[in-house]
Design a protein that fits this description.
The structure is a homodimer of 263-residue chains. By secondary structure, chain A is α/β, with parallel strands linked by helices. Chain A is built from seven helices and 13 strands. Chain A starts with 5 loop residues before the first strand and ends in a 13-residue tail after the last helix.
């Protein structure tokens, strides 16, 4: 018997998130979906791995049925544990989301949603992160979920999933106001950092992060797409080396300066 | 009066780490050093940001003197809070380390040490992450610290810190066995994931991460340098877009498929 197309679904908002729920329901229309997700909200955890405490796995029920496995760890933990230990076979695709809050530009570094998809990509499995352009948990995720599922089916049929990692961002708009889909590059937005300083009832200072995200207006970028009502699909590739600097750095006379005595 | 060259020092092993202590002592020979570091061990936290709880800042004493500020957050939090709030002026350089455990190849994604330096780089300040090729906390960090300080002085004098982010890894060897310094590219090492399943005294399963790091043997890479006794300096640049895929992705007939009805 031919095995059904298998998708591992995860997120960083936690296994009880509506974003994940609607996504899974839409994906189940054409695929077998296994859910392994954090047991609670894990936003902004980046590529955190849990190495100094044990991970627990519990069945999570929704509407009286097992919806998936909840893990007391980060999105990266979930994917690593699922691939190495929990799943019977290698999934054909990994989908992370739908996250409340857009993950464009530099947020790729901070996002647990993208980190989970990155783990899939590092394991050699095509992976997709999906985020929504709002933090409003009341925003109905049903349409974004169905749209995501349709996009994935398109990619499967027309492109055979020939990608490593896609970062999809969907504007928080009613269907009729979404202008289309754009393949984008990662923007150069930044965070204007700010911490609000307050005093607790015991007279001690504390600080809350109150940074402001300053989106890129660079046409063709992920930020630009969202701001203009387009669904953004960014093909991601992690490249860390600044090759342009290697030659210049080699001009510094390090050679032979291997021990302290030679400095 | 001319202001002294200012360095912000941080790490991910925690403000009480010997790696940070020896590094700061070495740097103080030529610079003013301000320390803002996590109040406890934060390894493998990646680019985690603390957004859902307040940050506390406390003075940390060492040998009866204020050594620096301890923050109940991640390395990224420390740098953001230091730059936006705690420091009186913008540092000329940010140094993160010395970390116990090498941060080569894909570990750039997971490392809190590198994440702290990345925050500096994103804020437009030359930043350096420094890691040691051993997890043995008994390994004497004095020589690696002095070597790091000498390298930084060289970069300052000969290269005017014309870089964004350098990822330095130092082999855990006695000075006489270090073969030299190499400017390297980021390797393609990977983690062979494995979780050990155990049963707790109450009969419930738990999992420990027991992954194995499989270093790259690619000549000229950071992993190769460390394995061959060289200090590795990798110029880092974060580039996320897979431009090679943008054209191919555009061949998928997304255009016009903006609403569900049109699929």
């Amino acid at each position: 018997m031919e095995k059904k197309f298998l998708i591992l679904a995860t997120n960083d908002d936690g296994i009880d998130s509506n974003g994940l729920f609607h996504l899974v329901k839409s994906l189940e229309e054409f695929a077998e979906v296994k859910v392994v997700a954090p047991d609670k909200q894990q936003s902004a955890v980046g590529h955190m791995l849990t190495i100094s405490k044990p991970l627990r796995v519990t069945k999570f029920y929704r509407n009286g049925e097992v919806f998936g496995y909840a893990v007391n760890g980060s999105p990266s933990d979930c994917v690593k544990l699922a691939l190495s230990t929990l799943l019977d076979r290698k999934p054909d695709l990994i989908v992370s989301g739908i996250n409340y809050g857009q993950n464009t530009s530099v947020n790729i570094l901070y996002s647990g949603t993208v980190a989970a998809a990155t783990e899939g990509c590092l394991a050699g499995i095509p992976s997709i992160a999906i985020s929504l352009g709002t933090y409003d948990l009341e925003f109905d995720c049903k349409f974004p979920a169905e749209l995501s599922s349709k996009i994935i089916k398109k990619l499967l049929n027309e492109q055979k999933l020939q990608f490593k990692l896609l970062n999809i961002n969907i504007p928080a708009l009613p269907p009729s106001e979404i202008k289309g889909i754009r393949v984008t590059h990662c923007g150069n937005a930044y965070w204007k950092d700010n911490y609000v300083k307050r005093v607790d009832p015991f007279g001690r200072d504390y600080y809350w992060f109150a940074g402001e995200f300053v989106p890129s207006d660079d046409e063709g970028s992920d930020d630009w797409a969202i701001a203009n009502g387009f669904v953004s699909i960014t093909p991601v590739n992690f490249s860390f080396t600044d090759y342009s600097l290697i030659e210049k750095m080699n001009e510094v006379s390090f050679d032979g300066l291997d021990t302290l005595s030679s400095f």
